[in-house]
Amino acid sequence: MPHPTIYHGTFLHHPSTKPSAYEVLEDRYIFVDEGGVIVGISSSSSPPEGGELEGLRKHTESFIQEGKIGKEWADPVKWLIVNGTDIGEEGGGRGGKHSGRRGKVRWFAPGFIDTHIHASQFPNAGVFGNSTLLDWLRTYTFPLESSLADPAKARKVYNRAVAASLRAGTTTASYYATIHVDSTNILAEIAHEKGQRAFIGRCNMDREGINEDYYRDASADSAIADTIATVDFCEGLGRRSDSAKPGQGLDEDRKSESLVKAIVTPRFAPSCTPECLAGLGALARERNLPIQTHISENTDECKLVGELFPDRKSYADVYDHFGLLTDNTVLAHAIHLTNEEKTVIKERGAGVSHCPVSNSSISSGLCPVRSLLDAGIEVGLGTDVSGGYSSSILTAAREAGMVSRILAGLEARQGKEGGGDRTKLMPEECLYLATRGGARCLGLDEKVGRFEVGMEWDAQLVEVEMVKETGEEETELVDDDPGLVQLWGGEGWGDRIAKWVFCGDDRNTKMVWVKGRLVHERK
Ligand code: GUN
Ligand code: FE
User: What is the pTM (predicted TM-score) of this model?
Assistant: First the structure.
C-alpha cells in the first residue's frame, strides 16, 4: 500500500467553480492516508515556531485530537514527507536535501485531466499535412488504427502513449482506442498497471459507405457486443488484481478498486448507424456508463450529419435522440454549435472537451469557449492526439489561451457584440480548464481536481527556475535541465502561472501521483 504521506509546501488550485479564482496555499501540510485520500490540511500559513519538525508535530497532534487523523500518524518515523518547498541557489533550502545549483521554486498542483485523447493515434503525433477532418481520417488515421488489430503493436503503442501522458502530468485521461476488443483491453491493462486514472473507449463505427470497409464494425449488433466485452473486462480489472498473488502481475498497491473504467464511445454520429447509436445509448443507461464522442468539429462534418440524419433538428439532437446526451457525456470540439444546441447540452448536463491544438492543426476552427462557459456548460481540455500533436495538457492550455486571443481579435474587427477582450482566456482560466474543469466534465468533481479534505491525491509537483542573483547562465544542462520557465524575482502568482502555462513543459513536472501512488518521477 502507499505509505501515509505528508506533503509540505505551496499548493495551487481552484477551490470554486469560477475559472479565474485560483487559490495559493503557502507553507501548508497536506496529510494523505495510505488509501490516497486527503485527511488533513494545516491551516497555518505562517512558518511554525520551533522549526520545521516541531511545527509538523503540532499540526499532527491537533489533527489527532480533532479526530481528523488516526493515532498511527503520531509516530514520526512513519512519515514520508514530500518537499514542495523552494530550493535555494546553494542547494539545501528549507528541508531540502537537493544539491541544485540554481534556485528553484516549487509548488503542487492538481494533476492534469485529459478529457479527450486517442491513444491509438499516438504514433502519428505531429503528422497531419494540410488535411482537414474527413480526409485526415482517411489518409492518416484509419490506416494506423486498423494496424492495431495486432496486439503486439497495440501494446507497444499504448505503453508509449500512457507513459507520455503521465510524464506530462496527466493523472486522468479519457482514451479512445480502436474497434479491436483485445487491443482495447490491452490499453485498459496498461493504464491500470501504470496507475493512471483512465476511461477506456472501444471505438464504435459500423456505418457502411462512411467508414472504410477495411476498418469498421461488421454490424450494429457486433459493435454493441464488442463494446460490452470491453466494459466487462474493465469491470473485472480491480477484481483480477485482488486475486493476483504478490509478485504476480499487479503489485500490492493495485489491490484497491480499479481506477480504470469503460466509456461508451460512438466515434462520431456519421460513423454510426441509428441502430448502433440506439444500442449504445441503451447500454450506457443500463450499465450506468459515461459516454464520449465528437460533435461539431468541422463544417463538412456538420453538413454530413444533416444529410445522414434528416429527421433530427441538429447535430446535438442526434445524440440527444439516441440517449447519448447525459450528465455523463463528454463532447469533443463543439466548435460550430448553434445557441439551441448549447441550450440542450447545458440542460442535459453534458460537458465539452475543448481541443485547441487539434482544432488549429487540422484547421477545424476557433472554438468560442467563453460562450460555452457563459451558457453554463462544463468545459475541460483535450489533447486529441493525433489531431493534436502534443500529449501535454499544458500545451493544450497554452493553445486555449492563444486561440481565444485570435478569436477576440477577429470579433473586435467584426465589431461583434460581447466580442473582444472578454473572449480572451487568462492563464489561470486555462489552468482551471486543465484541472477542475476536466474533473467536472468527467464526473470526478467530488474525487479529484482540487486540494480539499476527502479528495483523492491526484497531483503533480511543479518546479521552475529562479534566475541566479548574478544572472549567470548554467553551461551544463545535461543532468539538470530546468526547462524554459525563468522567474526573475518579484513575480506574483498570476505571473508565475502565466510563465508555467506559456513557457512550461514536461521538464517542470517533477513528480506525479494518482490516488497517493507515485506514478512518475523526473530524476
Ligand atoms: N471525428 C471522428 N473521428 C475523429 C478522430 O479520430 N479525431 C478527431 N479529431 N475527430 C474525429
Ligand atoms: Fe478526437
Answer: 0.94
Same domain? For 272 and 401 the reply is: yes
* 77 and 183 housed in the same domain: no
Vertex 111 angle, CA 108 and 116, to 5°: 155
Polymer length in residues for the chain: 523
Distances from the Cα of 103 to the Cα of 92, 196, 242, 466, 488, angstroms: 10, 31, 45, 5, 10
Those residues whose beta carbon sits under 5 angstroms from the ion ligand 2 are: 332, 384
Q: How confident is the model at residue 85 (pLDDT cuts 50, 70, 90)?
A: confident
Residues near 37 by beta carbon (within 8 Å), at least 6 away in sequence: 454, 455, 456, 457, 515, 516
By percentage, how much of the chain surpasses pLDDT 70?
90
Phi-psi region of 192 (alpha: psi -120 to 50; beta: other; left: phi over 0): alpha
In ligand 1, the atom with minimum distance to the C-alpha of 176 is: 6
Instruction: Identify the helix (H) or strand (E) that includes residue 340.
Output: helix 339-348
Task: Determine the structural domain holding residue 295 and report its residue range.
Answer: 112-441
Question: What's the domain count of the chain?
Answer: 2
Ligand 1 contacts (CB < 6 A) are: 118, 133, 137, 141, 267-268, 294, 297, 358, 384, 387
Residues 167 and 140 in one domain: yes
